[in-house]
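Database export, one record per block. Field names are fixed; values are copied verbatim from the stored entry.
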Amino acid sequence: MLSVPAPLNLGLAFRESREPMLVLDPDQDRVVEANPAAADLLGYDSAVLRGMPASVLHPGQLPTLIVFTQAVQAKGRWWTHALTPRHGEGKTLRLEYAGSLLLSHAPLMLVTLADLDARRRRQVDAQADAHMRAGLSEWQRMERIFRDLERENQLILRAAGEGIYGVNADGVTTFVNPAAERMLGWSAADLVGRDMHATVHHTHPNGAHYHHHDCPIYAAFRDGAVHQVDTEVFWRRDGRAFPVEYTSTPIRDRGRLLGAVIVFRDIGPRREADERLRQALAEVDSLRERLELENAYLKEEIRLESHHQGIIGRSPAIEATLRQIDVVAGTDATVLVTGESGTGKELIARAIHEASRRSDRPLIRVNCAAVPRELFESEFFGHARGAFTGAVRDRVGRFELADGGTLFLDEVGEIPIDLQGKLLRVLQERSFERIGEERTRAVDVRLIAATNRDLRDEVRRGRFREDLYFRLNVFPIAASPLRERPEDIPLIAQHFLKGAARRLNIAEPRLTEGDARRLSRYAWPGNVRELENVIERGAILAVRGRLHLDLPEIDAPPRHREPAPAEPALAVPTETERRARDRAEIEAALVLTGGKIFGQGGAAERLGLRPTTLASRIKALGINRRDLLNHR
């Protein structure tokens, strides 16, 4: 017959006790009962604690909890410091558990909880009370100990470069060495007998009040441990703070903690040196990054230089361009190079740079057509770390890279108009700020710009600032298209042929006189770049050393359009007039075909041109089909 346990009746003593107590059922992993003192200590309502799994109250400590409860069951009573329950607010408590088995209600057990931190504070208070009860004789004995300590170490204290002072168990200063006097601005007579913390250690570096109970110096004669700190400040007599590094060492007499000796030093000069070193290292990193970028640009220049070997040709147009380069290279004047795509505008910029006094500094090239709109400022001026999402480190801009050298802005007409004003300001003031940085940086840059657009027309259309145009157009140079200097075509073709054979690692094919004549008859809408591609393709397809020029456009007879109205015999159109006429015809064809270039009924068919040729001319003339159709 099963026995029924008596009803659990803990009585008034359990509920009114000031000692926190729990009743646990280890078999059911349950808190059966908790008195109000336990509820206050654990931070839960008594009703919440009742029925709570004991393992929930001790997260991650189930093995320790099992060991404790089994020990209570086996021995009748047991205690432990190993269990650290979680307070209702989430903090961890340091408690002593003392358990005893409720024999009439086994396996239930009564557990008494004791706050270890509160117990330690009571012990400290008891020691202080014992000192007070000891009376004058005890105080005199402590003073003799500190006086003897000071006298025995007088030579060391006076010679030491670090500040040294002693405090008794109440935080009252007992001695101060000369170095401490100098650093703190107080005389020893002013400090001895005073509360040292309230005098020199009363405030945190951020200005917050520093309570005595939080002071590591005082902790040394409470817990008996040596405390080392290097993140705080002491306050001088004149109200100025200085960073310190200090060690607080407890003093014992016959096992009793009497006070502490504090050794400190002013680490302000060291921190200033560390900061200067950090700034110097940051500057070195910035210079290293700049040199790495310059090196990358120089490698690219070397590659391009070995690819082109300068400006080639003996035509009057080339000779006129070379004369202009000689005239302007010795100055710092801004140069605007205009011309169709593929006419060698970058070669002209490089020739100007290499003939200038800046040739020992880099030529930095920016292809404005390839820079995303949102990155123009960062590309030109750089940015500071954290200036925007993704800016994980400082970045040097192109203007800063080109300092002392030349900045070449290719396709300058592609710069968004709302950013052109910032470029103009830098050109006028010769200074800029990185994005996210307030520091203004001076810059000495020679600017060369290039475009295949008619910037005057862009100004009239409101797509380019007039003031920036005049700022760029100080010394204009026009790069002649290849069709206007056919006598240069054989020389350029031969140069490209040598380069292609070297890159392809093949014997150099022959360029015959017939090949030269065929190349010279072609209009080359893609200019030098198109010629280079034709020659390289011909070298790849060469048979038995004979260049294979497989381009229908070269051999096909020129196609004729409807004759234009006859001009007077003496009215030879200028280059500007010819370009304007070509532009008007192409725009008209595009409007008629709805912007269609390729296929039947396209603009190329109407104009009697190959679609690829028409596409090249549209790009060379800077025609925007979308704008054209939107403004019909």
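Remark 1: The chain is about 45% helix and 15% strand.
Remark 2: The longest strand covers residues 241-253.
End of record.
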